[in-house]
Amino acid sequence: MLKEAIYHRPKNNFAYAYDEQTIHIRIRAKKGDLTKVELIYGDPYVWKNGTWQRDIMTMHLAGSDGLFDYWFAEIKPPFRRLRYGFKCMSETEETYYTERGFQEKEPSRIDSYFCFPFLNAVDVFKAPEWVKNTIWYQIFPERFENGDPQLNPLGTLPWGGKPSPQNYFGGDIQGIINRLDYLEELGINGIYLTPIFKAETNHKYDTTDYMELDPQFGDKKSFAELVEQCHKRGIRVMLDAVFNHSGASFVPFKDVIKNGERSAYKDWFHIRKFPLIEEGQLNYDTFAFAEVMPKLNTENPEVKDYLIKVAKYWVKEFGIDGWRLDVANEVDHQFWREFRQAVHSIKPDVYILGEIWHDAMPWLQGDQFDAVMNYRFTNAVLDFFAKEKTNKSEFQQEIIHVLQSYPESVNEVAFNLLGSHDTERILTIAENNKENLLHMFLFQLSFPGSPCIYYGDEIGMTGGNDPGCRKCMVWEEGGQDRDLLKNVQELIKLRKQVPLFGNGGAFQWTNVHPDIISYTKTSSDEQLLIMINRGTEPLKVKVPNDFYGERDIWGQEQLSDHTTIEGKGFKLLYCKTKMVPVN
Fold first, then answer.
1. What share of the chain is helix, strand, coil (3-state, %, to 5)?
2. Given 68, 279, 433, 479, which is the most exposed site by the fewest CB atoms within 10 A?
3. 317-330: pLDDT as tens digits
4. Counting beta carbons within 10 angstroms of the beta carbon of residue 440, is it exposed (0 to 12), middle (13 to 18) or buried (19 or more)?
């Protein structure tokens, strides 16, 4: 037994309150090392004849990544208090693991055990419930639809031309309103807009006025209409906030440029010394090294008050449903704590999404964000389905690592995207293989979390990195892949109509065939088995007993003891009773 590989900590993703009655416990061990793990647990104040009264529960092997196994248990302590430890067993050895380390015999002293002192309701991670059932659609407003040509900036090009970092095609708020029928028919029920506030670029990540819409997009009246029309259709609206940095034409920064050390706003930014630029070197912090994006000092009370006022204003005045926070990991944690409290004081179920591309556990403890953009999920899916550079085992291990990195309550609202305005188009990454693209949509839409589709991916748009990924939306049906669109619509419909297909069931890999990627979604009395043939040759697989006589809910095939999955095909098997695992 490799004891040094066994790890548990009574916080974060290893011990957390799932809801107001339930505690989830995880322990990590070397892959393949332990054959069984038992959880020893009890209330710290329940004693009998001088002996602590404890129970024992066998933990479930939830999955494995490249190095580790993850064991899991769910407990509902009657008095919301818990002391606990682990009995770890291998083929040749057993040991007890507690807060005091490893011991040969079960510890008799209660202070040896790990402690979950009390399950306080206020400490439970609570993201908005509606997010679990939301399918997002990301819109880059300048390139979605030109609904009001009178708003076009000077030099606007005809729709559909070649994009560049500087050019304009006239996309606006009215254009989005005009296309709400399309979005509703697609089945999405949430739109995420990249920045719409006044700025000097087509992407608007260089805000110059946080309280005003950019004139090229329309006015506040048109935005209010968009939110109203979306809400009538059951569509939520999320805006993009750039609070890490402003644009160079933001009035406070212009004042600093003009007045230097005499400026009343000099402490609004991270300025090391004056002049701001000296021998070609910046003397102030920026986003990356972009001279036109000075970093805001969110520790400054005036800056903090201003930005929180902005956040509350758009929620209160227009009823938006979410904030996506740009470069969120470079802003101090205390700002985000106060941001969350302020926004929730206006509307308690606003979704708060941070742009963080790495392990984000410090931001996901209930006091800051509800979710982050789940790029580790993105990269795993792209590497396996689009680039075909990882094998089945590597893909499964990476997905398990993603799931085990966060509490289950966090995973249920994770923002699972395949592409965005910051990445190549997914069809381009897949080298125009639309069958692989459909597999990606299937996996994304059947995975726990809140999936997001980047505008145009559902019709097979292509493009490299910025500016290629920011082409004008193709509205002529002749330029759209209508078969792909129909399939994506059907997958979205399944997510809405079959709870197990979305967040309604526990995810677990299974193995029906060495060359088939397969996984189950399981609830107390239902099971969904998804099988994907990534190869080009048909493969025959044994149908688990519980599915005999049922139908494939995708192709409607009547199932018997075996079924054939065509090359690049997939099947979705549903039954009302739990499946007997296939090994």
1. 30, 25, 45
2. 279
3. 999 999 999 999 99
4. buried
Contacts with 221 (C-beta within 8 Å, 6 or more apart), sequence order: none
Q: Which two tokens stand for residue 488?
A: 């994506």
Structure tokens at 146: 């030109």
Q: How far apart are the first and last CA of the chain?
A: 25
Bridge partners for 575 per DSSP: 527
Q: Which residues are catalytic, by number?
A: 326, 355
Residue 583 has pLDDT above 50, yes or no: no
- Residue type (1 letter), 222: S
Q: Sign of the C-alpha dihedral, residues 572, 425, 207, 377? A: positive
Instruction: Indicate whether 580 pLDDT > 70.
Output: no
Q: What tokens were used for 364?
A: 């996901």
Distance in angstroms (rounded) separating the CA atoms of residues 523 and 505 = 5
CA 116/CA 119 separation, integer angstroms:
7
Neighbours of 118 (CB within 10 A): 12
Name the residue among 273, 328, 269, 327 with its Cα closest to residue 302.
269
How do beta strands 322-325 and 236-241 pair? parallel
Let me know the angle formed at the C-alpha of 24 by 18 and 30, rounded to the nearest 5 degrees. Answer: 140
Closest CA to 85 of 45, 133, 37, 134: 37
Burial label for 349, CB within 10 Å (0-12, 13-18, 19+), is middle
Longest Cα–Cα distance of the chain, Å, equals 86
Distance separating alpha carbons of residues 524 and 503, to the nearest angstrom: 14
Q: Which of 424, 425, 418, 430 is nearest to 465 (CA)?
A: 424
Return the H-helix or E-strand segment holding 399: helix 392-404
Determine the 3-state secondary structure of 322 from DSSP.
strand
pLDDT band at residue 525 under the 50/70/90 scheme: confident
pTM for this entry: 0.95
CA dihedral 521, 522, 526, 531 (to 10 degrees): 30
3-class secondary structure per residue, 355-412: CCCCCCHHHCCCCCCCEEECHHHHHHHHHHHHCCCCCHHHHHHHHHHHHHCCCHHHHC
Residue 565, token pair as written in the block: 């999955």
DSSP-derived letter for residue 320 is: -
Q: Tokens at residue 192, please?
A: 């995420």
Q: Distance of CA 541 to CAs 477, 510, 518, 521, 559, Å?
A: 38, 13, 11, 19, 11
Give me the amino acid identity at 325. L
- Token code pair at residue 167: 């050019």
